[in-house]
Amino acid sequence: MFDLRAIPKPTSSYSFPLDMTDERRQFTERRERRARELGISLYILGTDTDKETELQKLEDYIMDNFIDLDLDFPEKIKTEYLSLKEKLKSQSSNI
């Protein structure tokens, strides 16, 4: 075991290397809101990388070309994504 009293205490507070501006914070909030609107998970741990489904490819396309670039996605793509998601959801519930 070690003695906690022997550990030196910092003399100054930690200086975070990344400056989070209001503009960046607002962009992140918009990005999360727009992804949540379609039900796309932005932060996923432990994904199965061997599985490349049509839904995953469409999610990646939407994220890379619209949400990450802060652009509006076309209604055609939105309806296609939502219908595909619903179709896959109904198939998995029937199993």
Brief digest:
This protein is mainly α.
The global form is: elongated
Q: Strand-and-helix sequence, N→C?
A: HHH
How many distinct beta strands? 0
Helix content: 40-55%
Structural class estimated from helices and strands? mainly alpha
DSSP strand (E) fraction?
A: under 5%
In the predicted model, the low-confidence regions spanning at least 5 consecutive residues are none
**Spatial separation of the terminal alpha carbons:** 54 Å
Averaged pLDDT, please?
81
Largest sheet: none
Radius of gyration: 21 Å
Helical region count?
3
What's the helix and strand layout?
Elements: H1 22-38, H2 54-67, H3 75-94
Helix pairs in contact: 2-3
Descriptive key words:
mainly alpha
Structure characterization notes:
- With 95 residues, the chain is mostly helical.
- The chain is built from three helices and no strands.
- The protein has helices spanning 22-38, 54-67, 75-94.
- Helix 2 (54-67) runs antiparallel to helix 3.
- The protein is elongated and about 60 Å long.
- It starts with 21 loop residues before the first helix and ends with a helix.
